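chain below, 396 aa
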Amino acid sequence: MARALRTLDDLEVEGLRVLLRVDFNVPMNDGAIADDTRIRAALTTIEELRARGASLVLAAHLGRPEGRDPELSLRPVAERLADLIDADVELADAVVGEAVASASRRLSPGDVLMLENVRFEPGETRNDPELARALAELGDCYVNDAFGAAHRAHASTEGVARLLPSAAGRLLEHEVGTLRAVLEDPARPLVAVVGGAKVTDKIGVIEAFLRRADSVLVGGAMCFPFFAAQGHDVGDSLCEADGVEPARAALAAAPEARAELVLPQDLVAGDRFAADARRRELDGVDVPAGWMGLDVGARTAARYAAVIEDAGTVFWNGPMGAFELEPFAAGTRAVAEAVAAAPGTTVVGGGDSAAALVGFGLADRVDHLSTGGGAALELIEGRPLPGVEVLEGEGP
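prediction:
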């Protein structure tokens, strides 16, 4: 059992500078923000801290820069945040240094200073102690609201939290609480829907849910290593070679597991990966040579939807097929609609599943849409999240 997570309720912030780690790693298109969902997700914490009389020093990353990359500056993010909170947001020219420290000391209650992309500092991803100490000089206390980066032991997510009074922001608190409830105290039946491309990316999630859930529904290209392990023909489908043995092991363990492991019964194939590909409905799961499986079939979609509609709790991560290609979107759409209509608790684990919900206009009809795909999966697997563990129990 995890120790209690320290939250904003455990911090006195009035008149103090709060170093706030946020997840503003937003998608960009020609220098403009394509989707500001992650910025909006942090507003609850930002506005609460400002209302409680704190000044804010925001730390965030964008992309994976090799040194200082002007194209990955946080300037567009600072400008968008300023619009959303209707207040000035000053962007520092650097991450740390005397000029940045001086700017942080000039802040008044309610002021917001955003640091430049923390990954411009090479010590960030190494969790460099010197960088952590320099970051700690910018605040009187530390709050982490970046659930999407909580599985990284970086200077701004783990190192600095050991040097200042620290706590979780409201978003991180809600993410962790919601996902732990799925594992520890779900309303039943608990149904896990796991899709996507690679078994090796999610075999730990499948194994975790085989132990805890009532049904595990598998879709997407990750079903093909399972079919290959069973001796089916996969044609030209994307079939991860390294995934066949983990899939075989999961199949062997399934009869003794708590959950039923459910694979597609039928498929939709295309002669190539393209929106104008020839489309063929298969009455089964053997894929002919020269064709690739690109979606689950109608019988599978209906079966999965029926299981989801009877669930007390649903966790969904990963599409059922190439939903970005309209001829092969039906399976993912059916699952998305079933999740949106399910009467039980619905939790969607970010990534492509979230993109599908948004694309189908259903994002506001699920109970929880995670902002951290990788972090969510690692928490489900039972792996430690350094950015969370450091905020549990007694603080510094």
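The mean pLDDT is 95. Residues 170-184 form the longest helix (15 residues).
thats it, cya
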